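Section handout 9: paired folding examples.
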Amino acid sequence: VQLQASGGGLVQAGGSLRFSCAASGRTFSTYCLGWFRQAPGKEREFVAAVGWGGGRTSYSDSVKGRFTISRDNAKNTVYLQMNSLKPEDTAVYLCAAVEYMGVVVTADRYDYWGQGTLVTVSS
C-alpha cells in the first residue's frame, strides 16, 4: 500500500485546511486509516482515525470538535478537515493505514505511512 498525502500549507489562526490521503496498491476498505502529526522536537502524536466502514472514529482531545476525519472507500481516500486551527497545530501531518476493522490510535500498530505534509499556523 502506498499512501500519498496532499493539502498542507500556511494558514492563519482560526482558518481551515483539508488534507487528502490517497492509497494505491491495494483496496483499503478493510483498513483502519489514521492521521498523526509531529512538531519539531516532539514525538509523533495521534490526531484521528477512522474504521473501515467510516462509522467509527477517534480523535485526540486536542483536536476533538475542530477536526473531522472521513473516508471514501470508492476513491481509496481518507480526508482530514481541520477547522479553527491554532498555532499549536503546526506540525508535519502523516497519514497511515493498518489492516484492521476497528480503530487504532497507536502509531506502532500502523503498517503503512505516507510522506508528511507540513502545516504552519500563524498567530
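Moving on to protein 2 of 2.
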Amino acid sequence: QEQLVESGGGLVQAGGSLRLTCVSSGRPFDSDAMAWFRQAPGKEREFVAGISWSGRNTYYGDSVKGRFTISRENAKNTVYLQMNSLKPEDTAVYYCAAGPAVSSWYGDFGSWGQGTQVTVSS
C-alpha cells in the first residue's frame, strides 16, 4: 500500500515562498501521476497542480498559475510544490495525491497524504 508523507508547510507572510515536499513509499513511484490539492475551512478540495509520471507534463489550477511549480524526482520518490508570491487566499491544508493519471478531480486519486498546513498572513 502506498504511503505519502507531506512536509514543508508553515506560516509565511504574503509575498513569501514555501516549498512543500511529498515522499512516497510502498509502490513504484514512477508508475504514478502525482498531484497537489488543497482544502480551506468550509471549502471543497481544490486542484492545485499535477505532474505526469515522467515529469514531462505539468498542469495547474487557474488560481496558482505563474506562482506555483510542481516537480518530481523519481530517484528519490519525491514530488515538490514550490509556492512563490503567496497570498492569504492560499491558506489551506495541502494534500499530496497519487493516481494513474493527472486529473483535476480528487476522486481520481487513490492515495493521499495526511496534509500539511500552509498559512499566509496579510
